[in-house]
Amino acid sequence: MEKWPDNRAWFMVIPVFLVVAVSAIIPLMTVVNYSVQDIFGPGQRYFVGTEWFEQVLGDRRLHDALWRQFLFSGLVLLIEIPLGVLIALAMPKRGWAASFSLVLLALPLLIPWNVIGTIWIIFTRPDIGLFGATINTLGLDFDHTARALDAWVTLMLMEVWHWTPLVVLLAYAGLQAIPEAYYQAARIDGASAFAVFRYIQLPKMRGVLTIAVLLRFMDSFLIYAEPFVLTGGGPGNSTTFLSIHLVKIAVGQFDLGPAAAFSIIYFLIVLLFSWLFYQALQRAGTGDK
Fold first, then answer.
1. What is the pLDDT of residues 247-263, one digit of tens each?
2. Which residue among 64, 65, 144, 184 sits deepest, i.e. has the most Cβ atoms within 10 Å of its Cβ?
């Protein structure tokens, strides 16, 4: 007689799913409601259809913010992924030094995002900040509040310092999962260090690196607290990303209709990349088998 699988654990999980679903669906439906109506006050609302979506999609500021977002996310990946892999390769493999290195690397990940921005405001101040004052002492005129290039450099340094440890931890875990037999075979064949990395370590890390790439892309695409605290989207609009632009519409201008339409567009973009994230993970899992 065939035995049915024991699925009683689902009874413990279903309430969590219901709470999350309700807490997500109600705000989403509220946003959808605002996105198709022009609301003047209690009881004063008019159905406008896709007017707010057309207005938002035709807004040049949205296009600029979207391109800045993709540029920022692309730079983050180009810097953090190779740097994280190099650091993971250089780390001790075992012993107290390995444990100490892992704890030290994890410290930036424990700091709240708004605190990260505050730390870097003080660190890069051109008058008293250790980084800013040192750069100006060397004869370079550095001020992230006045020049767009300086703001981008500061923002990238902050992002790399904050999130490269995540890539390092993932890459380190991938390296630790490689059986010692592969390295023994490579030593017998006289393989160089680069050959070991190219044909053993990199293929075996493909799964964790895929996770690292897609997680970092998603996180950087949703970034808000750090640039808002550090630059406020300035100078000008040079560091105004999609999230900051959305807050300016919703809170600064109090245009709830366009803000709701923008939120849905933003949600669909995130949903698209979540789907790509899932597909990439599936392919990585299939390729490792």
1. 888 888 888 889 999 99
2. 144
